Amino acid sequence: MSGSTSTHTGTDWRAVALRTGPADRAAAEAGVRAAYRSAGLAEPCTVVWFDSPLQATAAALLLTGADAVVREAVVRDPATGAPADSADTGAGADAERVLAEAARILAGHGVAAEPGAAGGSVREALRTAPWEAARRRSLTALGPTDWSEHWSRTGGELWLRISDLTQRIRGAVADRLGGPDDPTRPVGPARSAVRLAMLDALCGQHDAAWLSALAEAPELDGLARTAAAAGWWWPYRDVVLLTERPIALHQDEPGRLHCADGPALAFPDGFALHAWRGMPVPAGFLDRLAALTAADIRTEANAELRRVMLEYYGYERYLAESGATPVHRDETGVLWRIELPGDEAVVTVEVVNSTPEPDGSHRVYWLRVPPRTRTAREGVAWTFGLTAEEYQPALQT
Fold it and tell me: Less Cβ crowding at N or C end of the chain, within 10 Å?
């Protein structure tokens, strides 16, 4: 890889992956056309821009005929053929609205929303084949050990941060178009159709991890230029579906989607993901947190949402307002236990920092420990990876 004259040397791929704001449409389209030429394909006749992967996936469903599977499963009432707005989640009517908007956008570019109107997918020729060639060449040149080090130094860390984001986008698109996921049942035909439609996509800026490792390969130049300028895209023989980048992206320090007062990820058409420290939450859930009460926490049926509520509310405040009593006390701190219906108990150790603050006060901390914890010492020891017997601090700070 050394000695390359690639124009992508020095590109900050982490910045590319996390970039928000309008796409550079001219640069993206130039990158797409370069990728087609590099793959030996004729340039596409038409480029259609969408505001989000949700809209573009709907268009892909229309252009491949898979929208019929979605409509059969979630959009139409099987008895009346009417929109399934009366379904439990209203998912049918929502999917129909997204499909209709995608059809309107396609029509605006002279593309019929029907199977075959775009030609077949050329992802294999455009992305899979050149990527495999570039990776094979790099692996041969570097050898397995140096390749592994090269990947760790370039795309490895970024991959961990971005792969979760792309999976979350795929999941949210499948929820909107294929109906909500039910882990107790096999994946339905509508969700399968939606996921297959997304497999035809390149992730654009979210392909940054592997591009950071291979972008010096000349056959990947067009893909790298497109990724640096736009979001996800779907290449077909005659038509390309390109998408805008997000308008907002919020992550916490470990890289999890997180925003306390709005969407953690949002696109121009309103397609958005809400999350609290990586955990998906309903769109209106965060609005409830400002007026949260201890009673709201106790009566929340969803265990995961209840944990978010507890975290937001604060363990100390909840303990005080719920009348909880300590279950153990020793020289290391106080052990508290909160029983939650239908879920494992929340157990915390209240500890006091022995080092005084500048004003002479001592700060109190709450350490979340496993539910099996029976003593304060055992809990504090667990936070150091020790047993209660092993925990013998010479000096507490």
Answer: C
Model pLDDT, residue 8? 67
Q: How confident is the model at residue 2 (pLDDT cuts 50, 70, 90)?
A: very low
Nearest to 261 by CA among 234, 281, 233: 281
244-277 pLDDT per residue, tens: 999 999 998 888 899 988 899 999 999 999 998 8
pLDDT bracket for residue 315 (50, 70, 90): confident
What DSSP assignment string belongs to 154-211? IIIHHHHHHHHHHHHHHHHHHHHHH----TTSPPPHHHHHHHHHHHT-B-GGGGHHHH
Structure tokens at 91: 């998912």
Q: What span, in angstroms and rounded, lies between the C-alpha atoms of 157 and 150? A: 11
Give alpha helix (H) positions in 204-335: 208-214, 221-227, 285-289, 294-299, 303-313, 315-321
Rounded to an integer, what distance in angstroms lies between the CA atom of residue 2 and that of residue 4? 5
- pLDDT score recorded for residue 392: 81
More confident residue, 234 or 72: 234
DSSP element (H, E) containing 63: helix 53-64
Task: Give the rounded distance of the alpha carbon of 280 from its chain centre.
Answer: 9
Q: Do residues 52 and 244 make contact, with C-beta atoms less than 8 angstroms apart?
A: yes
What tokens does 64 get? 């491949």
Q: To 5 degrees, how large is the angle CA 138–CA 144–CA 147?
A: 50
**How far is Cα of residue 49 from the mean position of the Cα atoms in its chain?**
22
Name the residue type at position 52. S
357 exposed, middle or buried (CB, 10 Å; 0-12, 13-18, 19+)? exposed
- State how far the alpha carbon of 115 is from the alpha carbons of 68, 72, 112, 366, in Å: 10, 16, 9, 58
Report the side by side order of strands in the sheet with 326-330: 326-330, 333-338, 346-352, 364-369
Two structure tokens written together for 383: 């936070």
> How far, in Å, are 60, 127, 153, 262, 299 from residue 64 at the CA level?
6, 19, 39, 35, 46
Neighbours of 335 (CB within 10 A): 24
